Amino acid sequence: MRFPVAALSLAATFTPSLARSSAVNASAFVSSNGDTQILGTSSKQDAPFSSTSRKGSSVDSLMTDPIYPGTAVERLNNVRLRVAEISKGNDLNGPWEDVRRRILWAGGLRDLSNAIPGKGYTGHSFSDYNHVDLTCMVENVSDNENDGRVKRIALGNQLGEGIRLASLPELGPGGSWSTCAIGCNKEPPQDVAHLQFRARIAFKLVWVPNENFDSFVLVDDDGKLLGKGKPSNTDELPPMRERQLNYRIVEGSKYAFEADKLARSVAAE
After folding, report:
1. Across-strand partners of 37?
2. Can you point out the beta strands (E) in the chain?
3. Where are the domains of the chain?
4. Per its UniProt entry, which superkingdom is the organism in (predicted)?
5. Averaged over 3-31, what is the pLDDT?
């Protein structure tokens, strides 16, 4: 994994005042437009989330993705609900430090900027061009390693311990991580989420290719828009080159569509 030379220094944990838990249909997958796609056969409503992990629960076993079986589907659904929550107002338009913490919270990750890399450190998450894929993986794949199929990523790329330490348990079984996006411009995507973990991404952060690269979009695994923001303090954003490289690794792919669309609309104003 590649870590930025100087990670942004952020507060320990963000917990929005509007944080709430919601019951999720055990057999439903939440799409980016709010529709549901039935994945299982159970109609049982899940119990309200608790602060304890429900490892190996029957709900988790019912919710599977036939194409990417490493996806923690229940957890991904709940991440999408949190993204919808922070996208409603101005939560993605404030100071970058606050915005990044909200994105971490939505993704089910703790803000552990002072932890040791590999021991739950998330200071690199959404702070550089590459660690911008929020991936929800089932527990039995969290120790998967890169066997060489993911190009430009270190062999091994052991993330399991960090995933377990940094993941917020209340979103459901499995874990979350900000995985490397390199390779996502291919079809099918050849990145860490899809190859190493055999999982879909819950969302990807893409910086918009406007003049200053000062806006971003959050898109789902199909490239559909989940949210967008324009942080208020551009001097605290990740370096310009990181933002430019972030767009470059998605350019021409489905993940660039919404960023390109927003850039065109701004240019036309």
Report:
1. 29
2. 28-30, 36-38, 131-137, 175-180, 201-207, 216-219, 225-229
3. 28-267
4. Eukaryota
5. 38
Are 132 and 178 in contact, with CB atoms under 8 Å apart?
yes
Exposure string for 191-224, b = 16+ CB within 10 A, e = fewer: bbbbbbbbbbbbbbbbbbbbeebbbbbbbbbebe
| 51 burial type by CB count under 10 A (0-12 exposed, 13-18 middle, 19+ buried) | exposed
What gap in Å lies between CA 18 and CA 238, rounded to an integer?
27
What does pTM read for this prediction? 0.77
What would the pLDDT profile of 126-147 be if each residue is shown by its tens digit?
Answer: 999 999 999 999 999 887 665 6
pLDDT surpasses 60 at 1: no
Q: How far apart are CA 199 and CA 65, in angstroms?
A: 8
- pLDDT, one tens digit per residue, over 173-183 is 999 999 999 99
Distance CA 85, CA 128 (A): 24
